[in-house]
Amino acid sequence: MDITTPTKKDIEIIEKQINREPHKIISIPKRCSFGFPQVIQSFPLKDGKPFPTLYWLTCPHLTKEVGKLEASGKIKEWEEEIKNSENLKELYLNAHLEEKEKRNAFLKDQEIWIIKRFENIGIGGIKNFESIKCLHLQLASYLGGTKNPIGERVWHSIEKTECENCICCLL
Description:
By secondary structure, the protein is an alpha+beta fold. It is built from 7 helices and 5 strands. It has helices at about 10-20, 60-70, 75-85, 85-105, 110-115, 135-145, 150-155; strands at about 25-30, 35-40, 45, 50, 55.
């Protein structure tokens, strides 16, 4: 994985990809073959308040493809599998713990109340570590470098992992 610091042009593209100003981007851990950001890593505080989502999916193509998986019922299907498979449950718990550790590394100089607020929160603010919440979040976590078994499933369930016509070239 080639993690890069965002340029001014990257930030302009990301704003267009997500239709809003991005929140304190730390890095771009995943780009498409056209060179455009697919996932960003953001600082876990916003306006001095805890903001638990570390990785964000920005690619319009991937966002659309993941939406199709959600519409097909994959969240419910995979949550059921997490409940019934000790192996998957353990792998998914480890993904939450790994991401918490990454997030906490950015918070080491913060006030104790902020650190405590994140104590029992995993990927993207999830408190129940058998819950998926959102497949976009899980894919961003996986593409951001977390060993996330649900994000990996999402990635391997997408028919085309990038657009053919460079959607972001037109932004």
